[in-house]
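Quick start: what a row looks like.
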Amino acid sequence: MDTHTTSAKVLLNHATTLNLHTGNLVNRSRLKKKCPSSPSEEIQDCVRATLSEWFATIPPPTSPTDLPDTIDCSIPQATEAITPEEREELKVSVKLFICEADLSSIKDAVDKDGLFLTACQALAVSQLDSVIIAPPALPEEVSQTLDNLQPAWSELEGLVQSHKIATIGTSDLDKELLEQLYNWAQVKPSSNQVNLASCCVMPPDLTAFAKEFDIQLLTHNDPKELITAASFQEAVQESTQDLKVADWRLEWVLRYSIIVKSRGIIKAKGYLVHAKRRSL
């Protein structure tokens, strides 16, 4: 076992929080060798590759007191900050996938120290142009409700009101639930994403409601669960050759894209991943 693998195991076995930033995938050649077949495969590849690269660069801890509770894993040369001069020409869009359904995980993902601070520090911006929230995946027999959406939406509203986010949107809401959210919310949803894998044609009632209240309908191809707990743990395990990964749980995944407005091209794309280790 090499020194770097040993260091990775020691760090992971001590830490309780993992923050991972893939950097700009547009420029990361090691991810261009194969084209991922799905968003789930892409994020799994990203986690595996970023952890492997980062662990290969860290020195072994000199003493137990050097072990941090939080691991901030990123590849500096793969991250491109936005300069003030180019900010007006760029649109910074974010989709936040909440992986845990409990209230504390949702607040941690969306509050000012979670989503906003993490994303803005990574990209060197003071405001996100749009944030779309994807609620936690529910069992097939359980329907999404307004009660499930309200905690996260309330947090996002605060970020809009403090000018940290320009607009907020939703994902996979039918007409009834979108209308409930619209009527309840102080900050109205500006968009709603529809998965065309499960809906080949936009439902007429949803289209009519969105048109009446100026809500943009967008399409996406993300699965209900962006990455399963098993797939995440597998990526960590392969990166560190460590079997003790079953107590690591994803709390949220943030995917960002930076688009050049005038040209409609993607300048940067990446993931921020937040996971915690919990006792089994």
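That is the whole record. The mean pLDDT is 84. The radius of gyration is 19 Å.
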